[in-house]
Amino acid sequence: MNADDVLSATRTTEPDRLNLEPAELAEAVDAFVVRGDAASALEVAGRTWRVWFRRGMNDEGTAVLAKALDSAGIEIVPIWHARVLYGAGLLAFRDGDQGRSREFNEKALAAATSTGDARGECDALTGLARVALRDGRYADVAALSRQARERARSVEDRAAEASPLHLEAAGVRLQARYEEARVLYVESLRLSEELADERGVTIELHNLGWVELHLGRIDEAAKYFERRDQSGSQEAYDRAWTDINWAAVAALRGDGEDARLRLERGRQVLEEQAETLDPDDQFELDWVTMLVSDQR
Predict the structure, then answer these.
(1) Beta carbons of 218 and 242 less than 8 angstroms apart
(2) Over the stretch 199-220, which tens digit does the pLDDT of each residue have?
């Protein structure tokens, strides 16, 4: 498939449903760069960076996005320039590079604001909220997320509201305001269902389970984890958290041996991935590790 065909495919197919390998997408970006078509290079990268992100191919994805961004020079490419900057910021965040993630998201916000791109503004504010989350600035997380949600609502973009709603819930949750977090996560779960976002549904079922655990409602947590597990994800990160989720349930039910075995199995998979955990997941991992340790 040549570069033009790849671009056409990305315009008509969601990234998760693209029947294209990352190498084919990278080759298309390369071809447009060589051709001097910065706009198309950015569009392909902007539409497909989640392919690398979802596969944990952060280095490869970062290289492709950097090539597309470098090709743009001072050329103004509305929308896709901001989208690629946001994607680069998220990949940097996943690699634990706070400074680079903040820089990319600030540039994305400036690019989107200059063209009145509401979705781009919403994404960039969400990216900055994500950076604040890892910095431990949880009040800022909630404030930036609410600002992003308001921008999405101003143009009635329900899909754009999904990520900041999720992050607002995380910021509230990490302030130990669990009842408020539960309300926000339920709202986020319903939005993911409305958008037919299966991945979002799975994530919020996971998060609701942990909120219920902190509220002492172990049986309710188990119900959320059971629904989450029905998604059948084969990604290593998800498989690791299946064990860790049930380790927490076992620990709180007093089954220390089962909790220990599950926790060790889940931690081993995470260590093999060598990926920086999102702050809310890191908090829960530390919490369940303490629970299990106390039962020895």
Answers:
(1) no
(2) 999 999 999 999 999 999 999 9
